[in-house]
């Protein structure tokens, strides 16, 4: 949830995404028997570092440098999201969980949303894309709670096994 939430005081993000990626690192450490976990854990560590650096730039008011730099962690994050949801769907398939198909749909939807954010954000800076942003925000209001619902449902399905 920390990756989806943004609480700011001025320009300081109180719940930065790198904290959420640290939770991914912790969770992936518990999944040592899964073959893809170590690679995902490496990407999660990369995202912690990249996002922390971006966050520090923003904290010091270096918005222009931060805006340019943000493309790198955003691209790595898109790849991580794709691999993470694929990883969860594989686990669901091996355990005959009903959420397998939903996780694959969420994989595509989350990656599409992240890619859309990369396109919309620069347009907003130019004074364009307000309608796109409103459509994006509406889609996010639907996708984020649904993602959380499926993830918690998947966790319950695994507990039953």
Describe this structure as you would to a colleague:
This protein is mostly helical and 161 residues long. Helix content is 77%, strand content 2%. It contains six helices and two strands. It has a two-stranded antiparallel ribbon with strand order 1-2. Strand 1 and strand 2 form a beta hairpin.
Task: Chart the SSEs and their pairings.
Elements: E1 8-9, E2 12-13, H1 17-29, H2 37-59, H3 63-69, H4 71-94, H5 100-125, H6 130-160
Antiparallel strand pairs: 1-2
Features:
161 residues, mainly alpha, two-stranded antiparallel sheet, 6 helices, globular
Q: Biggest β-sheet: count, sense, barrel?
A: 2 strands, antiparallel
Determine the mean pLDDT.
83
- Runs in which pLDDT lies below 50 for 5 or more consecutive residues are none
CA-based shape: globular
The neighbouring-strand order within the major sheet is: 1-2
Q: Report the radius of gyration as a whole number of Å.
A: 17 Å
Number of helices: 6
| Topology, number of strands | 2
Q: Which percent band covers the strand fraction?
A: under 5%
Helix content: over 70%
> What is the string of helix and strand elements?
EEHHHHHH
What class would the helix/strand composition place it in? mainly alpha
Span between termini: 25 Å
